[in-house]
């Protein structure tokens, strides 16, 4: 019985000790790396994307040797260690905005991912491109065992793995020419553009659009123009209408333009926005150049006011209006001025009655001008002040209407008498 117990004990000790003494040695093998883009690999010119690349190690250990006296090794020959991967741009119309990525160790049968920020050139031609992925790593080349110790020999390898991307044809617009007309502060005007398709896509059902740029005082009022089929290399002329706010200054302001269209896949897409700078002229403005405004209480007088166009644009069918306040009244408070170019003057005449008990002092009457701008929109000027002085009535008999009437009759009668007398004496 004791002999059987000793045999069982010996077998247990052997079972526990033998695996620790034996070791597997992989004599042949190396990493084998391949790369592919995770997700879509189709992009359009001008895109800025995050490119995710999956790096897979499919390397195998092809020969295994079991040696009961060997020391187990820490690394396998097919493990890619300290992997670094960076995207290149040689022969590819992209810009890589990320540094090479450190991926660590990739054992056989495992994968790792790297992400890169990439911008596709706006003028990139459509097609399939092979983006070079440069990968550097080390791996176990060989090992030597000395008694119960092992010396490792590592090799470093750099290889370039192509990664395929597809650049789709796209519409790219170039604003060949831009002009503006009647673009002044507080008015509407036209913006005319010549657009060219400098891309590689034939756009269908294309529509050119202008869009307000942020808080720019240039606001589109007629913002789209139908282009239809817009082929590569083709140019089109388009006209838009915009309004300029009254808070604008005499300077250039931004305006955005883009084209929406159906691409070759039947999807409705839009081009990248192009920002233009448009000069804005000064506002339309008027001033009271002069006035013959010395009136007398208790009389009806003609008030003559000279208005001058001090703005930067021509106005059409201008009419001046004066607001009569106490002690003034008027049944004829509007006068036609006509068309006024910048710097032009025109005289308005208003019939004004003054109360007989009016105080003798200077008065300010409000006046404004209603006019049509170049796009036939009705506009009203800022309010202007017309100064009117009330002066005492003259006591001269020649200011009395009755006396003036008698004098007129006497002069006419005398003239008639002289004429008849000369005829009789011939």
Q: What would you say this structure looks like, in words?
A:
With 426 residues, this protein is mainly beta. It folds into four domains: 2-167, Immunoglobulin-like (Sandwich); 173-279, Immunoglobulin-like, CATH 2.60.40; 286-393, Sandwich (Immunoglobulin-like), CATH 2.60.40.10; 397-426. It is built from two helices and 30 strands. The protein has helices spanning 2-21, 401-424; strands at residues 23-29, 33-37, 42-43, 48-57, 61-67, 80-87, 94-96, 101-106, 111-120, 127-146, 149-167, 173-181, 188-197, 203-212, 218-222, 224-230, 235-244, 252-262, 268-270, 274-279, 286-292, 294-295, 300-309, 315-323, 328-332, 334-340, 345-354, 362-372, 378-380, 384-390. Residues 3-21 have low confidence and may be disordered.
Chain oligomer state: single chain
Task: Name the helicity range.
Answer: 10-25%
Outline the biggest β-sheet.
6 strands, mixed
Strand content: over 45%
CATH architecture of the largest domain: Sandwich
Class per helix and strand makeup: mainly beta
Distance between the termini: 191 Å
Instruction: Quickly count the domains.
Output: 4
- Figure out the total of helices: 2
Using the coordinates shown, work out and report the CATH topology of the largest domain. Immunoglobulin-like
| Rg, alpha carbons | 47 Å
What is this entry, summarized?
The chain is mainly β and 426 residues long. It folds into 4 domains: 2-167, Immunoglobulin-like (Sandwich); 173-279, Immunoglobulins (Immunoglobulin-like, Sandwich); 286-393, Immunoglobulins (Immunoglobulin-like), CATH 2.60.40; 397-426.
């Amino acid at each position: 019985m004791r002999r059987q117990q000793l045999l069982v004990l010996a077998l247990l000790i052997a079972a526990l000790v033998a695996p620790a003494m034996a070791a597997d040695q992989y004599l042949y093998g190396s990493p084998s790396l391949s790369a592919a883009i995770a997700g879509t690999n189709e992009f359009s010119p001008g895109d800025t994307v995050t490119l995710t690349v999956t790096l897979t190690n499919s390397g195998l250990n092809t020969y295994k040797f079991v040696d009961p006296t060997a020391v187990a090794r820490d690394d396998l020959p097919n493990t890619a260690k300290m992997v670094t991967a960076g995207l290149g741009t040689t022969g590819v119309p992209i810009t890589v905005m990320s540094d090479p990525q450190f991926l660590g160790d990739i054992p056989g049968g495992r994968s790792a991912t790297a992400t890169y920020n990439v911008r596709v050139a706006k003028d990139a031609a459509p097609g399939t491109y092979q983006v070079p992925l440069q990968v550097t790593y080390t791996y176990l080349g060989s090992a030597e065992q000395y008694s119960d110790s092992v010396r490792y020999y590592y090799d470093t390898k750099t290889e370039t793995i192509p990664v395929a991307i597809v650049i789709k044809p796209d519409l790219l617009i170039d604003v060949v020419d831009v002009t503006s007309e009647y673009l002044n502060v507080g008015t509407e005007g036209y913006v005319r553009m010549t657009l060219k398709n400098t891309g590689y896509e034939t756009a269908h059902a294309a529509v050119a659009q202008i869009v307000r740029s942020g808080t720019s005082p240039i606001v589109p009022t007629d913002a789209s123009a139908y282009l239809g089929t817009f082929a590569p290399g083709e140019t089109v002329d388009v006209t838009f209408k915009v309004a300029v706010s009254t808070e604008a200054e005499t300077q250039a302001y931004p305006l955005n333009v883009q084209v929406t269209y159906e691409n070759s896949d039947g999807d409705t897409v839009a081009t990248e926005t192009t920002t233009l700078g448009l000069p804005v002229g000064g506002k339309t403005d008027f001033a009271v150049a002069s006035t013959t405004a010395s009136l007398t209480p208790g009389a009806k007088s003609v008030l003559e006011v000279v208005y001058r166009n001090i703005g930067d644009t021509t106005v059409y069918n201008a009419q001046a209006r004066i607001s009569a306040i106490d002690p003034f009244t008027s049944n004829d408070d509007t006068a036609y001025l006509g068309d006024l170019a910048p710097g032009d003057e025109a005289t308005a005449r208003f019939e004004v009655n003054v109360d007989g008990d009016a105080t003798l002092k200077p008065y300010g009457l409000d006046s404004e001008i209603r006019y049509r701008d170049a796009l036939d929109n009705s506009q009203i000027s800022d309010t202007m002040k017309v100064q009117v002085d009330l002066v005492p009535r003259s006591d001269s008999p020649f200011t009395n209407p009755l006396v003036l009437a008698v004098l007129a009759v006497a002069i006419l009668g005398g003239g008639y008498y002289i004429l008849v007398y000369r005829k009789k004496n011939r």
